[in-house]
From TrEMBL:
Coiled coil: none annotated. Residues 2-46 form the Helix-turn-helix domain. PANTHER family: HELIX-TURN-HELIX DOMAIN-CONTAINING PROTEIN (PTHR34585:SF22), PTHR34585. InterPro entries: DNA-bd_dom_put_sf, HTH_17. Pfam families: HTH_17. This is Helix-turn-helix domain-containing protein. It comes from Bacteroides reticulotermitis JCM 10512.
């Protein structure tokens, strides 16, 4: 998987993906100037990131809709 694939799967920005690479949250391989990720590593990161993300409550529509 490349950067774009991972950003879509994890629903993160390219800058957040860079942070995950930098801090070791998501292992990667680099070929020339392109980064690649193993699908099993992305799935593991998805579980880890999901644990760290706070639950987001659903906002109520105005006027009780």
């Amino acid at each position: 998987m490349d950067n774009q694939d991972v950003c879509i799967v994890l629903n993160i920005s390219p800058r957040t993906l860079q942070t995950y690479r930098d801090n070791g949250t998501l292992p990667y391989s680099q070929v020339n100037h392109k980064m690649y990720y193993r699908p099993e590593d992305v799935q593991a990161a998805l579980r880890l990131i999901g644990e760290k993300r706070p639950e987001r409550g659903r906002k109520e529509a105005p006027y009780g809709r």
